[in-house]
Structure formats: C-alpha cells, structure tokens
Amino acid sequence: MVLLTDLTIAEARDGLARKDFSSKELTEAHIRAIESARAFNAYVLETPDRAIEDAVASDKRRAKGEIGALDGIPIAVKDIFCTKGIRTTACSKILAEFVPPYESFVTQKLRQSGTVLLGKTNLDEFAMGSSNETSAFGPVLNPWKSSIDTAKLVPGGSSGGSACAVAAGLCLGATGTDTGGSIRQPAAFCGIVGMKPTYGRCSRWGIVAFASSLDQAGPMTRTVQDSAIMLSAMAGFDHNDSTSSRQIVPNFESSFEKSIKGVRIGIPDEYRVEGIDPEINELWETGIQWLKQQGAEICSISLSQTQNALPAYYIIAPAEASSNLSRYDGMRYGSRVSDVSLTKTYSKTRGGGFGPEVVRRILVGTYVLSAGYYDAYYLKAQKIRRLISEEFNNAFSDVDAILVPTSPTPAFAKGEKENDLIAMYLNDVLTVPASLAGLPAISVPAGLSKSGLPLGLQLITRSFDEETLFRVAQSIENSAGWHHRPSKFMF
Amino acid sequence: MSKLEGKTWTWETVIGLEIHAQITTKSKLFSGASTKFGALPNTQVTLVDVAMPGMLPVLNEMAVEQIVRTGLAINAEINLYSVFDRKNYFYPDLPQGYQISQFSDPIVGKGEIEIKMDDGEKRGVGITRIHLEQDAGKSIHDMDPSFTYVDLNRSGVPLMEIVSEPDLRSSAEAAAYVRKIRAILQYIGSCDGNMERGNLRCDVNVSVRRKGDPLGTRCEIKNVNSIRFLKQAIDYEANRQLNIIENGDKVTQETRLFDSVTGKTRSMRSKEEAHDYRYFPDPDLLPLQLKKSYVDRLSAELPELPDQKLLRFVNELGLSLDVAEEFVFEKEKADYFEPIATGRDAKLVANMVRKDVFGYANFHSINISDVPVTPQKYGELIDLIVEGDINNRIASEIFILMAKTGKDAEVIVQEKGLRQLSDTNELEVVIEKVIEVSEKQVAQYKNGNQKIIGWFVGQIMQKTKGQANPKVVNALLRKKLN
Question: Of A142, A325, B105, B203, which one has the greatest count of Cβ atoms within 10 A?
Fold first, then answer.
C-alpha cells in the first residue's frame, strides 16, 4: 500500500479528486508523521488544529464542487513568511514571540488555492546560513545518512526545515525563500526539487526581509511537476510590492507538453570551481549526456565573472541586511531589554536578540556601506553584479538553459563547517550567480554519491522563462529515474 | 545688514537654506495612512509606518506630482530618472531604522528663483535640488519623567527638501527667499506653508568671510520654524562667528540649535559626532522613471505663480507695487482680494479690504480666511459705496456689524437707516442752515481760502450723522458759496 505521506502533490490531487481519501485523512497522516519525526527539528511550530480545520473546510468545499488548484493539499511554510495569528519568528530570538496580524501575499495565495497548513518550518536565523545551524530553535537534521559514516548531516540552508520536511514525508510540499541559494542548496542536500523563480515573480510582501534585491520565494517539492503546480499557486503581481512583476503567470504545469528537442543547453567552464567534489563533476557530465540523448544541443559557454559572484554576494546581501534588520530595535514589537540609556537599550536588545551569524552580517554590511568604504566595496560589488547580469544575458542570446551543479559537495556533517566560515560561504558558490542576476533556477536530484547521499543538478534560464526551466528539469528527472527516499526509522 | 562691520574688516554673511516642506497629499509617501493634522496619537499608522516585518513601501504618485510641479514652478530641471536611497540611523521615532530619501539622484535638479536683495536689485537665488523624503515620527519627552512617548502619525508623511545655493547675504535676504518659496508652494498647492505646525521648516547654513574671500567654515542651524526666528538665528550666528574670527580663533564646523527664548544658537553636535548615514539605493523601490509627456502636461497645467500675479496686480489692476507685493506674498490676502476686485474698482477694493478685513484679522489675531465676512458679502458692501448709497466711513462701520451679526450689508443699511443722503433738496436745506450761522468762514472762503470747504463738509456731516454723500455735498456747497 502506498503511504499517503509518500504521494506527490499531483498524485494527492488526483486521489482527492477520485475521493480515494479525504483531505482530513491526508492531513492526519501527515500530522502523525510529523509527531513521529520531531527529532529532525524540521518544524518550529506545528499547527495540527489549524491543519484539521483547513482540511475539513477543504473537504466541504470539495463536496460542493468549489475547489482551488491545491485544495486539501497539506503543506509546510518556512517560518519567514508572516502568517496571520500564527507565530512567525524567522528563527530569531528577537522575534521569538512575534504573532503577525497579517498574512504574507504568497501564503495568502496558497490559502486561497485551498492548501492545508501543517506548520512553520525551521530555518537559519533570518535565512542567514547554509546549514540550518544558526536557527535560534536549534539545528535541523538531514533525514539522509551516509552509508560509510555515522555523523549526523545538515540539511543545508537556509530553508533546511522545509527541505527536511519534504524529503522525510512530513508535508507534500513546502515554501522556501532563496537569497543566494537557500532553496536550491538544501534541496540538493535532501534529495528534493527546489526552485527559485525569477526575481519579482512572487511578491515579497509579508516575508521577513533578508536582502531585498535578492530574496525570492519558491516551492520545495518532491518532483518537478509538483514544483510547477505549486509555483502557479504562489506567483503573481502584487501592487504592495514595488518590485513585483506584472508578467502574466502561465499555467506552469503545461510546460511539460513540449519535448526538449533542439533546446540549447549552455555549459560554462567557469563553474568547474576549486574544491568541487569529483563525484559531482561526474554527475554533471552524466547530466549533459542525458540532455544530449533527449535531443538537446550542448554548447560550451563562458561566464567569466562567476568567480566574482561570491564576494559580490557577500557584500550586497549583508549591506541590505544591515539596513533591513534595523527595525528590530525592541521599540514597537519583538523582545526588548531595557537599560539606563537609549543606546544601551538598543545595544542589549539587539546584542541579545540576534545570534552570532546575524550579528556578523550586520557588522559586515554596516562596514561596506560606511563612508570611505562604500565605493571600494558596495559600489564595486554592484558593478560586478551588473557584469554578471550582462554576461548571462549574452549567454542567453545563444542558449536556452544553463546546466551546472547545485552545490560543490553533498550534505556535510553537523558542526563540520561551523567554525570555518569561508568553507561555509563557499557552499553558495554555484548558486549565487543566478541570484545576483535575478534569474530563475532549479535544483533537481540527479543521483547518489558513493556514500549514498543525494546530489543535485542546477538549471538556469532566461528571466521569466520558468517554462523552459521546468521542461528541461523534468527531462533530467526522468533520465535520472530518481526514486530515492531517505531511509525511515533512522533513530 | 548685508555687511557686518567688524573691528578689523567689513565682513559678509553667507547663507544657504534647506527648506523642509510637507507635501500636500491625502496619504503618506509610502503608505495609505492619512496625513491629516491633529488626529489622536498613533491613529494614522499602517503596518508599513510601524515597519512591521516584511512590510514594503509603495510610492505615492500624488507626492511625485506635487514635487515635479514645484520644480517646474522654480524653473528647475526635472530629472526623468531618480533614485530613492535609505538614510540609516537609529531613533525610536524612526521605525524602519532608516529614512527613505533621495541622495545622489533627486527628482528635481538645478533651478532658480528671483528675489529683491538688500540693495534693492532683483537677483536669482540658485536652487541646488529638491528631493522627496519621508518625515520621522514625533518623540514626546515631557509626558513622563522617565519615558519618552512616540507618536507615529507623522512618520512617513511626504516632505520635499529644497536646497539652495549659498547665494544669500543677510537675514533679510534669507527671509525674503523663504517668503518667496512659501508663496510659490502655496500658489501651486504643493505645501500649505504653515510654519507654526512645522509644515515648513528650515535648516540654515551660516558662515562669514571677508568679501571676496573663499567661503568660511559654516555652521548648520537645525529646525527653524518661523521667519522671525530665522532672522534672529542668522543675525546671532553671524555675529558669534565674527567674534570668534576677530579674536583670532577658528569657527568649528558643527550643527547648532536655535533657542527661541534666548534668541541664541547653541552647539548640538560637532562634525566628528556627525552620523554616518550609510546611504544606499533602497532595494525595495525601483528607480523612478518619469515620461517627458507627463512633465509637459504638469507644466501646462501650472496655475498662475506669484511673480505673474504681481505683474497683473500692478499692470492690470493698477495697484501700487507695495500693496501688490503685500497681497501676493501673503496669499490669503490675494485670495480674499481677488474675487472682490474682479469687475470692481480694484484700487477702492484694495484700500477697503486692507483697512477693514485685514485690519480686523490682525486685531483679532485670526487668519483672513476665518474673518466672518466672505469676499462675496464684502463685495456687496463695496457695491453700496459705488452706487452712492453709503460712503467709505459708513461702509467700515457696516463691515464691523456684518462681522458681528452675520447680516448682509444691505440689511444693515435698511435697519439702521444708514443710506447716504444724496437728495439735493434735503441737503440744500442743511447746507443753507450751516452757511447762515457761519459768516466768518463764508468770508474766508470769499477771500480765496479754498481749504475752508473741508470745514463746511465736516459741519454738514455732523448734522447728517455722516450720511451725507460727500460728492453731492461738495458740489452743492460750491454752488451756494459762489
């Protein structure tokens, strides 16, 4: 018998339509799964009562025949999306008790399409991290285990809770946010599909901001088709977000109707960065062969700015973050530690409320924006960002999609890189270029390492060409014949 | 006081101004909250104004329109491309921890306005730029001995900052500049110019130098909120700097505050303590791109500006330059005067409203718009003068009664029997009686004393309780005496 928690969104949707099971049954199965897998620490807030309520309401709608695109589908929401009346913390101590009186645009859209909210998932504090180890609620564990080592592995970050929940069958899909790779890298580490849409595709309204010019919400699912289904329900213009796009949102599920025959795939040599795991390079080569066999044309392209992307990213993102996080001053909401003077109150509130990684990025960001350093750091980083964009644009005058790995290594051990920040930041080296250029990108699980850990391949396409992205991604998925799940009962 | 006479040299004061003007809009610069004055604290705030997590700014198009119109009114360049920047600093009345402003690419570029300088010449004062920004909230320190309260109603209200070149040379010129700017803003309706409410306030940069020398070290005086204080602050500050220099010391660049009680400025913070605002483009807002056709349309729709009105008042209505300037630069006066003057004797109207209406407002310390007699009703009073029913003096008395009772001029004339005596027969009787008992004065007249006519008129006015028509009396008197 197929477990309800093992279904894809598409299968669950069809099962609900056929009345094989109710949303309530589907939801209850997930609530049980969540309860039995608390050791992963994927959820920082479980909302079973709300989930049942949502499911019952969905079943009633279905009985009346008034259903939305995702009606009755239980999902998880990264705890960086504000949810009305439900605690939203960004996994920071400074917002530990914060209950927003409003709902983010994206989760509002998901609600309107009929989804069931199972709970809020763990993340690196304010989405700053690549291993989900900076969360004020403690780290998340990767449901996957190495076959040759007993070390506990990180799920990647910052959307580590969502990636873990999707991989371990604790929801059918989850929302993530990606600033420099925060959807794609954990997706690769946990063997799921993680998709970052074009910047502006999903409204940022109601998402706790990290770096405004980079933050983008996206779906985390078990299949490419599910990714397309979920994005259709999340995307759309929002007049409350000035950077939101008015581009028409197609039904992304129809992306798969065409084959990839004749699609031109670019392979940039510059992504063969130092420190990349040889197994990942091999998988990349295999991916190229798969696409060739499906009729795609493979072209060698050059993206010479790739090596500059990471330093530029680690200037721009902290600069914006240092300003975005100024509002957490303990004056109007969030925790406050009062002291004798205003300056001391600020200092204690913020010093005590933010964890070390957040403090570090605020300091770096403040530094690079300071008088005398602005030109050398921030302005230079912006120039690099423009060059990266131009280079991608040039490449896309010749090719339709770019195929690269998602991460230089498979999931690493908990604590392994906590004290080696450069190594930690290097994890984003393959994901930040697309972020800086605002391009849509997706990570697809494509194989297992020798130690049995999932590896991902990443595709990047033109702005607002998510359809090609999904189509090529599904071709990789099909060729890989991906069917792996983390072993259950690992505890 | 263009020149400062020092012990050693004649010095020159150099002044540049930053005017912060609240833009007249219904809602805030980046949120839908109301900007209405006088609401209870923290009742005009949205989630954006409180800077809740994940909230985003959306630009108010009306504020953009108002600042573009202002730029056009001072003949400034309108930048079709401009950028919003964040100015970062911490304060409890600044919820975001940054103010959204414009730094390197403002909407309005260089412009110029003409004012009358101290030497009587008209010269241009350069405007460096005008940019859009949000106001902060209000910190209230005196409600509680140990706490500061914050009212965020003003947080996010749209301001435009009008920056001048250091082209002004005295407190009087600075005052004339602010008056002119205020009038322009009021004429186009982009700011109400109310300095008492803080809707228009100035930061003043003052330095002194020997004439012809390069600019001296300047001090910035913050938040001056009346033209009188502006003059006081500049005069005090210029003298303070002069004394420092003449004593052989150097002026330190710093930010100072003006104390309106003592009339002095005092140090607020030195250059070393100045904030590093870490300006950078706000990633939540795209650069603002305007179409030329949009700017052209706003330009075509601009109303009459103060200089144009001044010319018209002098050339077409025949007002003296002084009166025309008084009316034009105190817009309330022009607003009251103009509808009455249209189609009537403008000079008569000007004289009468100055004496009656503006005098009344001044006496009662109220705004002209709050005078209880509308321009329309006052016009009806003027008509009674023109038709010969009453004379100017009676009209002034009637105006006071109109203000007191709310009755129309015509009604008061009827009720009090104040209609002017123009009936020749009736007046002849009075005149003959006066002549009869005034042999001495008649003799003086016959001996060529023409001025004595005024004495006769006075007598006749007394006898008729001021109701005699002076023109008719004059004509009849001369006929009888001759």
Answer: A142
